[in-house]
Structures are given as C-alpha cells and as structure tokens.
C-alpha cells in the first residue's frame, strides 16, 4: 500500500467532484476541460491523461452516443444530454483514474434515463465487490456482464478496465464480459491497483472511431454510459481510492 | 480512460487441429495462435494458410487471439 497512490486517488476524487459540478447547460466541453486542469493543479497533481501518447487533454468527455476518449471541444452541453466525464490524476509517481455519467436536467426536461444510468453504477459496485484476493479478473467481468445484461443493456466488449498504479494502463485488462472460463483469467492479488470500468449502451455494442482519431462512438447512434473507479486490492477486499464525493 | 482491445492484421501461416490457426502479425512479425470467431464459423467462412486476416487480441494472453475477419 503506497501512500502516494492513495493520495493520487483522493486528490482525483476531489478534483473530479468539482469538475463534474461544472457540467451544466450551456458550458462547452473545452471550458470543462479548463476547469478540470485548474482543479487538478490545485490538488498538486498533474493531468494523468496527458501522459498518454498523442492525448493532449486532462479529460475525456462523451455525450450521448459518444462512448469514451471524447476530446473536449467547443460542443455545448444541452438539456437531456447524457454526459460522461473521465479524468486521471498523476501524483508523485502514481496514477489514478475515474469516470461518471450524468443526465443534464432542466426545468423543461424530464429525466428519461435514470434507470439506464443507475444500472451502470450498480454494476460497478458489484464488480468492485468481486475484486478480492482469491478471485480472478473473470469474476469482475462476470459481475459487470450479468448486471448490465439482466437490465436489458449491452456491455461494449472491446473497451476494458485496466490495472493502474505506476502506469495509467497496466496489466491486467479487465473486460466487462467474460470470454472463456474464469479459471483462465488472471488472479487478483493483494497490492494490485485496478481501474474497474463499466462501459455499456442501450443499443448494439459495436463501436467506431470518429474523424478526430480519438472519440469512440456507438455505431448505431444509441446512447452509452461509463462508470469507473480506481481500487486498491487489500487482504480484506477492494479499497476504493477514488470515491464519488458527490 | 478505457483501454481498447487491439485488432491486428496478420497472415495465416498454418492450419492447426480444432479450427485454430497460426497467424503471423504484420505489426511485429510475431506468431500467435488464433481461433475462428463464432460469426465466421456461422457463415462458413473458410480460412486457409496465406489468407490475410484481422485478429482480435486476447486480453489475457499476448500469444492468443480470435480471427474476426478475412480480408
């Protein structure tokens, strides 16, 4: 257990909560990005995503059919949008990573996707429960796949969670679907940092990369959602180091 | 930030028992063992040595993959 890793998580959790709070009607994604940078710096951290080759932003923001890796451009947030915010923070050698999706409300707009979003959060909780020493990555995948599937939605199999710690992306990959037998998936061990992600859609699970080379969207244009937390595996189970402070 | 399962192009070098194939990846000349995806089997798409294919790399094993497309 490294104190700087725990700090990287706490600092991200705080910066993330403040940034998410800015995501409202009329704000542009570029403005959200600027706020994120501000909050990350105020915590004494660095934007972890900028350390990814060719990615120059602190956040990935995805609206509606956008799934992941959305470059924060001048698009403005509108009522009814399903907006996913994904951020990473680097502190003293350690990375942390988290994401959340919310539906933008207004007095004229009724919440339409409450249940769709609630399922994702629930799947993340169940997945985190499985991140125990003695279990395998397949147990996490199965928890995500079953929770999302039972609600009638589809996990996007090509996009996965991942180990996190010294690197933003490290072994093991943590898919949201189980392929093959659980016993053939990697073991979960004490000390592992895991960025567990639930990435799913209302429609078909096919995805495509759009013109900017980064943003990934659903092929059928149906909305998608994303929830992610970084956990540290301890002998008593997973310790969430990036809680949702909102 | 999510990771994406890699899809790589390769050439089939050998057909193995059990509808598995040895595939040489174009990216780095590495040889892996790949099985035929269900969709391809369902549509009776034949794959023989010499075919260029797209392989979805296994998340857990760098030496394993799944043939998802014949070019």
How would you describe this protein?
The complex is a heterodimer of chains A (246) and B (71). Chain A has 246 residues and is of the alpha+beta class. Chain A contains four helices and 13 strands. Chain A is globular. The model of chain A has no long low-confidence stretch (mean pLDDT 96). Chain B has 71 residues and is mainly β. Chain B has one domain (7-70): Nucleic acid-binding proteins (OB fold (Dihydrolipoamide Acetyltransferase, E2P)). A five-stranded mixed barrel of chain B has the order 2-3-4-6-5. In chain B, strand 3 and strand 4 (31-36) form a beta hairpin. Chain B starts with a strand and ends with a strand. The A-B interface holds A 49, 52, 55, 60, 68-69, 86, 88, 97, 137, 157-162, 168-169, 172-173, 175, 179, 184-186, 197, 199, 216, 226, 228 and B 1-5, 56, 58-60. Strand 7 of chain A pairs antiparallel with strand 1 (3-4) of chain B.
How many distinct domains of chain B?
1
CATH superfamily of chain B: Nucleic acid-binding proteins
Please mark out the parts of chain B with pLDDT under 50 across 5 or more consecutive residues, or reply none: none
Write the H/E string of chain A, N to C. Answer: HHEEEEEHHEEEEEEEE
Structural class of chain B: mainly beta
Distance between the termini of chain B: 31 Å
Q: Radius of gyration of chain B from the CA trace?
A: 11 Å
